[in-house]
Amino acid sequence: MTEAPLILCVEDEQQLLTDVTDELTEAGYRVLAARDGAEAVRRITDVTPDLVLCDISMPVADGYVLLDHVKAHPQRFAHVPFIFFTALGASEEIVRAKRLGADDYLVKPVDYDLLLATIEARLRQVGLIRHSAAKAALPTNAVLDLLARPVCLVGRTGELLFRNRAAIGVIGPGSNQPYSAAHMRQLLDRHAQAAVFTAAPATGLHMVICRLGAHDAEAVVFLGAEEAADVLSEERTHRLAEAFGFTSTESRIAALLCAGLSPSEISQKLSIASTTTAFHLKNLFQKTGTGRQAALVAKLLSHPTALIQD
Fold this sequence. Notes:
Keywords: DNA-binding, Phosphoprotein, Transcription, Transcription regulation, Two-component regulatory system. InterPro entries: CheY-like_superfamily (IPR011006), Sig_transdc_resp-reg_C-effctor (IPR016032), Sig_transdc_resp-reg_receiver (IPR001789), Tscrpt_reg_LuxR_C (IPR000792), WalR-like (IPR039420), WH-like_DNA-bd_sf (IPR036388). The chain contains 15 helices and 10 strands. It is of the alpha/beta class. The longest helix has 26 residues.
């Protein structure tokens, strides 16, 4: 069963916060409440809301603080609509909010019918965008089913969108606690800044989790007994180098990126200057047609030459 959308509601007026929370709860939404922008930033450290409702003028930290934080982390919040509450006639604030990236605004006193209609429309719009992106960007089930390696696709709320035949043989077709939506979402939030990381649930089966960026599926999960460093064996790295035209140094850096190392860690491991690593990383971006580390790792790990068994 899919969980109800989670709404982050930020408002310093306690009675209004209570009223809005009650309305949203009665409408079937889950609600995360905060009294100012700073508290809201803390509340979303380990959880990603589906939509944000936020007052603009608040003590301690105003709504712009939260908006800046959200816009600074597009990997997590790119598909999270941000709606401001504003006072009647505050046109300057509305213009500023729009320019900073707010998606919509509601004027106080709050019209609750308009509030619910706006939320429903924004969430429906996000759903359509994700569905379109998924159809355009994700591999077909038939292709993934041909792979010998167990592979799963994880959605933005942590649910398993798809598991290929090999994965079904390992973890089964139904719900499985170590791979539940709540557990997968917790793992993704815990490693919010990581392009790729390894986790070992109670089953003892390693999961190499690679983020996919702005697609409907947030991550692709490779299941197996191997550690992250073994995802790209020497043979698979060689095949990728041939496919993309990597130099030997670029191949080594690509393999280390896919093992979860940061550019600074790669510089230390290879005993090269950080500027040299940055130069080779720029070449990797150009040769793969990517612009971010997460997108680069995703493209390498999901490339047919990397998925073929040695």
